[in-house]
Specification:
Length: 404
């Protein structure tokens, strides 16, 4: 089967789940074509059955780009009225999707193997809109499957309205939210329940280290995240201020980078936590796993951002659970589908600084509870979030051969 993937950037450091999924299909002897806008080098090994196609970049300021769009539309109105009429509704359907670049690449898409594909997989809703627009213009006839991860429902709908995905909902596309939480959101937005199938992202459990017994004696807390608002790291820092005032001894290591780094640095100094909290920066995946192995608890206090941005189900939580490090997170998005409070981890409400402090204290004070949480957490990931099983299920969905 020939499968096309529509993504923004490939490969992408912050979206390793896309490459894991593609590799899983390649390992099942499928041919994969990736249609991307940009690339980051050095993230994966090339495969003989993997074909990469990158859009042409449109240079110039926005005004110049739109001037070019209107010139092209006038040309099509004269030379190809049918195409012109098909394009008019697409303007509205693709709002927020860089319409000038889409139109400028129509000729390029005609020259790609797009029309020979059996199915198209789009990661994130806007790429599903882009694929559906190309299909409506007659550039291919393959069935479309669209993964929804979180922000593409929460932030995009908040910005563009509840009918943002209406053209996609009216099509024969299959919608693949990564959690039951986002399935319910899609149905609330008037997607047909018959077109929605929950398919989770997962991890390769066998490739991860397993936490051993004992530790250094120093209580280590860790987080792995982009330094952005929805990760809620500021609330972890505020919770640790409470612990320090209580006389608790700890180290908190934050792995990752992002636009809020300076804000977090200021908070650390404001709360006199410079000796306890370290912004480690970005690390390789192997080094990240080492950090988690040597941590006594992994904390990810995710929140809904002021712009409406939300998580899916964070891979860092899955990996920490598989490694055997106890996890603390929040009742946010699909996270409760991964973590059952008091069984496979601890959950607190979003932005509950006091609750976070109590949860960290609980792990510090009760090693038996921490051990039980870790054992149950690993079982949950192995049984429900194992990548190889999920990739086999995905192929069943794409091929129409059924799934479990």
């Amino acid at each position: 089967m020939k499968i096309g993937f529509f993504v923004n950037t490939f490969p992408c450091r912050s979206q390793t789940f896309v490459w894991s999924q593609i590799k899983g299909l390649l390992d099942q002897e499928q041919e994969v074509h990736v249609f991307a806008r940009d690339s980051e080098e050095g993230q994966f090994s090339y495969h003989p059955s993997l074909y990469l196609h990158y859009e042409k970049v449109i240079e110039g300021r926005v005004l110049k780009q739109w001037t070019g769009v209107f010139s092209q539309l006038i040309k099509w109105l004269v030379t190809s009225p049918r195409l012109f009429l098909k394009l008019l509704p697409i303007f509205w359907q693709l709002r927020g999707c860089n319409v000038p670049r889409f139109l400028a690449n129509l000729g390029w898409y005609r020259e790609t193997p797009l029309n020979g594909l059996d199915v198209v997989v789009a990661h994130f809703g806007p790429n599903g809109l882009r694929a559906n627009a190309l299909k409506s213009l007659g550039l291919f006839d393959a069935r479309i499957f669209v993964f929804f991860h979180g922000y593409d429902i929460s932030e995009k709908v908040d910005r563009f309205g509840k009918k943002y995905y209406s053209s996609l909902f009216r099509s024969d596309a299959t919608l693949l939210p990564i959690s039951e939480f986002w399935k319910c959101k899609l149905i609330d937005l008037k997607a047909s329940e018959k077109s929605v199938i929950v398919h989770r992202m997962g991890i390769a459990v066998d490739g991860l280290p397993v936490k051993g017994k004992g530790g250094s004696g120093e209580f280590v807390i860790s987080s792995v995240a982009r330094l952005v608002e929805k990760k809620g790291l500021e609330y972890a820092i505020k919770a640790l201020e409470i612990l320090k005032k209580e006389g608790r001894l700890f180290k908190y290591r934050i792995i990752g980078d992002g636009p809020l780094r300076k804000n977090l640095e200021n908070m650390i100094h404001e709360f006199d936590l410079a000796n306890e909290v370290v912004l480690v920066g970005p690390l390789s995946h192997a080094r990240v796993c080492e950090e988690i192995v040597h941590s006594d608890v992994f904390v990810l206090p995710s929140v809904t951002s002021l712009k409406g941005d939300m998580e899916g189900i964070p891979v860092s939580l899955m990996e920490s659970m598989a490694i055997g490090t106890p996890v603390i997170s929040t009742y946010h998005s699909g996270i409760p589908e991964l973590i059952e409070n008091g069984v496979s981890g601890l959950l607190v409400p979003e932005r509950d600084v006091g609750g976070l402090a109590l949860a960290i204290n609980a792990i510090m004070d009760d090693s038996k509870m921490a051990k039980n949480l870790s054992a149950n957490a690993r079982l949950k990931v192995v049984s429900h979030f194992e990548l190889e099983l999920l990739n086999k299920r995905l192929l069943g969905i794409l091929s129409g051969g059924g799934y479990v």
